[in-house]
Each structure stands twice: as structure tokens, then as C-alpha cells.
Amino acid sequence: MPASRQEKMTKKERIDALLKGQPIDHVPFYPFVLGFCARNVGYPLSVIYSDPARSWEAQLWTHEEYGFDWGPIYGYASYGTWEFGGEVKMPQSAYEQAPTHITFPVQTEEGVYRLELPDVKKAGCLPLAMEFSRLQEKQGTPITLIFGGNFTIAGNICPVEKLCRWMIRKPELAHHILQLATDHIVDAVKYWADTYGGEQVIAQIWEPLASNDIISPKQFETFVLPYMQESGNKILGMGVKHIFYHICGEQNLNLPYWTQMPMGDLGICSIGSQIEIATAIKHLGTKAIIAGNIEPNILQTGPPQQVYRLCKEIIEAGKKAPRGFMLMSGCETPPETPPYNVYMMRKAIEDFGWYD
Amino acid sequence: MLALPEPERIFINRIERGRILMASEERTQELIKGLYDAVVAMDEEQAAELSQVALREGVDAYYAVMNGLAAGMDKVGQLYAEQEYFVPELLLCSDALYAGLGILKPHIKAEEAHIKGQIVIGVAEGDVHDIGKNMVKIMFEAAGWTVHDLGKDVKLERFAEEQQRTKADVVAISALMTSSMLAIPQAIKMIRERDPKVAILAGGAPLTRDIATSYGADGYARNAGDVVQEAVKVLSRLKGN
């Protein structure tokens, strides 16, 4: 970072210290940038998800350019469809951002009980994710394994409308799918922990479908909390030190439950723009690093001055987090974001992100 | 507010084998309330059963739909907007609505079926997230609109083509992703080129009213609970009422 002030830490030192709860020189910049990196280096957007080597390159080069602190990551929100036997398609058109489901593994009630746990060494995107993690290990960046959350995986195994109906009419079906999703998460993290050592792995869990745009806090308590607690406890039991939860979308009513999630010491909780930074700190700030929450839409369409002002406000609020804070977009930075707006995020850290 | 049919229709409804079937006002209101409650309570079986009873006892089918089932769904929309109900409840309420509609609709006389309007609806190209669009569709159908549903990941020109084919009053386009929302202004431009006067609504998680307006839309609704009212408001404004 060509800052007005001299950095006192390398990126790796900064992230290592942040995760240990130690002082750092400035707010780190977390790269929730995937398709943007492909656009930035002139690659087809699909390579981010289908070609680990080129995905790595595109992200690494973009990270160098914009000064992101965390390393490249591999993952997408429709995780679970492909892994459990459905079909996804890679983003192709100008308006697509990430892989999307074409067919779901389960369409009928009978299909629920025919579901089997996938072989984590072969299923869906996991071989690609493993190849990507080898690059993370080789380059010494955090080995980050990204999933949909338990409920999001369930809603990618069967259409989410079906899952919603079953939650009320046939809860045993919903619970069966959620248990499989939970077991799958545990299996996959175990594979990573066996390969790299648990303490080297950071499990990152994106949970958009459990937002209050879809389910109630009561339903969250019944259908999300126990499963995420189970997988979280088992993941930490493998020696994993940090679980990173992306609390995606409108989840203000769920926050009391998020505080009950196992997340290690320290956990990391990123939030969307729907949750105020101060609110996240109040609920989660004592046990987790808070990350967030620049509105992606403002990144995509806002003038640079607006992005810069928003980043300033968020950095100033985030610096009050007792266990640390990272600046990031509230959800994936849209691929069509003007590059200068991403630079505005970095410049705001440079101007306002220093810890004195 | 739902329009009530003329009072005489309430009581003299069907003629079978030369016999006029009638339900007393009290009984009619009891059945109407039952239909309303069945929808709000997500009781599909009760909605179907009471619809059969209403027909058997001579309650006007259109009256039963509008003041029982649709009014119930109107209440559900309100509960959804107030975060009393969420998507699972709304879906089950709509199942109850459709169970009743399936029975009552074939008995609505053509001259009674006051179609409120026609709407073309779909999710923008590049986006397969259609749960919000489906909620909106339910609310329009419940309110007596004819809905032409284009589905999800809809090629941009399809919105204009379908509006031309159906002469729909309103076109509604949604997107969940920040990438696919960029398709909305393109689709709006294509629609306007063919029919500058059609009312256009835009919605979905990443949109705000300001963004929808900047894309050229006439209206926006934060959620499905508000959308029918917004469409009516926009149409009224465009017609200068």
C-alpha cells in the first residue's frame, strides 16, 4: 500500500496477528472479489470457478494491484447442488456472476431418502477447491475452504421453496436434508484438515438462504442453529482454529442466534450492508473479528466519492470492534464494478484505517 | 381495497334445474370468513372444502374468491410485510389460496370476472433466483390479475415481446444479483421502444426505489406484500387519475 504512512507489517504478518487477536498497523482489506478479478485481467469470468490455476492468477494479480491483505479464495453460494448430484452451469452471459443450479439433486419426498453423502474427494467442485487450496498452501496464504451454510446447502439440494414448505408441513424431510448437509460439511473439512492440518484450515461458511428475507428467526432457531452448532463444534474438534461466517443479507433478527455459533478463537463474522457495523459489534464483537460491509450495489453504481465516504464511515465504525475488523464488500463485489471504486476502498483504508 | 360485487349477486347466485340456490347473508359471511381464515391459517384442505360448500350453498363464486380467498391473501401480504409471516408461511397460504381458486374459478361467470389488469412478470437474464418473483406472482393472482409469467433467466427482449403479445398493463422485472440487475434498464428500454406508455415495475434485493427510477421504471416495491398496491398506484398515476 503506497500509503502516506509507512506500513509496519507485511500482509501475512497483519492477517496472522489479526487472527491471534494481536495489534495490527491498519485495518486489513478482505478480498470478496471473484468475477471482478477475471474481468480485471481479461479472463472469462467462468475460469474463477472452473480453472483453479487461472482463478489463482487472476485473483493474485488483482490483489497485488489493489492491496488486498487476505489471499485468493475459491467458492460460490450455490454450493451443494453439484456435490449432491445435481447440475450447475458456469457463468457465461454478461449478466451472470457465479455458478447457478440447473437441476436439483432432490425434487420429490422419496428423493430425500435416496440422497447419499457425497465422496468429498470426487464430488462437484471439491476437486477444484482442493487444487486451489494447494496453491494457497504453496503461496502461504490462508487455506480457506468455502461452503454454503448448512441451510443454504439444503436449499441447493432441493429447491428452496420445497424446503420452505417441508419445514412446516413435513419437518422430518427438512431435518433429514439438513443433517446430510451438516455431515457433508464435516466430511469435507475433515478431508482438508487431514490434508493440511486442522490448524492451517479456515472454514468459511456463506449463509444467504437463512436470511430473514426467507425464513423467520424462529425457523432459524429450529432449522439452522442446531445444525450449524453441530458442524461448528466438530470442525473445531479437528483442530481448526477459525470459522468464518458470512452472515449474508438481512439477518438482523437472527443475530442472537449467530452469537451462539461455535467459531473458534477468534471467529470471523462478515455482514451484509443490511446490518449496521455497530450492531454486529454489539452482538458478535467479543468473540469474532467483524468484516464488512460496503453495499455491493454502491460499489457497482456509486460515484467514487460516495464509495470513499461510505468506506470512511464503515472503517471508523469498524475500528471500534474489540477483536478487530476487516473492510470488505457486504457481499461479492460485482464483476462490473468500476475498478476505481475498488481503489476507493483501499484509499479509504490508507487514509482512515490506521490504528494509532 | 377489494371491489365488492353488486349486493344482489351475493344472494342470487346460481340456478340449477330451475331452482335458484341461495345462501343467507349470515351463512354467506360465515363461509367467506372461513375461506379468509383458511388462507391466513395455511389450511389448504379447509380452503378446498369451504369452496365446495360455498358453491353447493349458492354463494357467488366471484364474491367468494374476492372477499374470502383474495382478502385472506391480502392479509397474508400484510403479515409478510410486517415480518409476522415469512416465505414458508406465504407459500403455504398460497397453496390454500390456489386450492380454493381451483374449485371456485371455473364457476365465475365471464361477465363477473372483473379482471383487475394484466401483468407480464419475469426474472432478468442471468438470474435464476425466482422465489421473490413467485411471491409477487401469487399476490397479483390473488388480487385478480392475469399474470403472464416468463419465468427466470429471461432473455431481455422477451419482456417486450410478451407485453406486445398480451397488451399487458404492467411489466414487472426482478433481479437478485447485482450483476443481473444491470439487465433491467436494457429490458426497460426495449419495452419502452415498443410501448412508451406501459407501466413498468422493477424489484429485487439489490434494488431501491431510486435505482428502479434511475433504470426508467415507474414503480418499485420492497416486498411482495406491497406490490399490487404499487402497481395500482402507478397505473392510476400514468392514467392521470
Per CATH, the superfamily of the largest domain in chain B is Cobalamin-binding domain
Any idea how many domains of chain B? 2
CATH hierarchy, class of the largest domain in chain B: Alpha Beta
CATH architecture of the largest domain in chain A: Alpha-Beta Barrel
CATH C-level category of the largest domain in chain A:
Alpha Beta
Please provide a brief summary of the model.
Chain A has 356 residues and is of the alpha/beta class. Chain A has 16 helices and 8 strands. The longest helix of chain A is centred in the middle third of the chain and has 26 residues.
Structural account:
The complex is a heterodimer of chains A (356) and B (241). With 356 residues, chain A is an alpha/beta fold. Chain A folds into two domains: 1-72 and 276-356, no CATH class; 83-265, Alpha-Beta Barrel (TIM Barrel). Chain A is 47% helix and 12% strand. Chain A is built from 16 helices and eight strands. Chain A has helices at 11-20, 35-41, 47-50, 52-66, 109-114, 126-139, 150-157, 160-169, 171-196, 217-223, 225-237, 255-258, 277-284, 296-301, 304-318, 339-352, and strands spanning 87-89, 100-103, 143-148, 201-206, 242-247, 267-271, 288-294, 325-329. Chain A has a six-stranded parallel β-sheet. In chain A, strands 1-2 form a two-stranded antiparallel sheet. In chain A, strand 6, helix 13 and strand 7 (288-294) form a beta-alpha-beta unit. In chain A, helix 9 packs parallel to helix 11. The longest helix of chain A is centred in the middle third of the chain and has 26 residues, at 171-196. The model of chain A has no long low-confidence stretch (mean pLDDT 96). Chain B has two domains: 18-107, Methyltransferase, Methionine Synthase (B12-binding Domains), Chain A, domain 1, CATH 1.10.1240; 118-240, Cobalamin-binding domain (Rossmann fold), CATH 3.40.50. Chain B has helices at 7-11, 25-40, 44-56, 61-81, 87-104, 131-142, 156-166, 183-194, 209-214, 227-238, and strands spanning 14-16, 19-21, 118-123, 146-149, 170-174, 199-203, 219-220. In chain B, helix 6 links the parallel strand 3 and strand 4 (146-149). By secondary structure, chain B is of the alpha/beta class. Chain B is elongated, with a radius of gyration of 19 Å. Classes of the chains: A alpha/beta (356), B alpha/beta (241). Chains A and B meet through helix 8 and helix 14 of A and helix 5 of B.
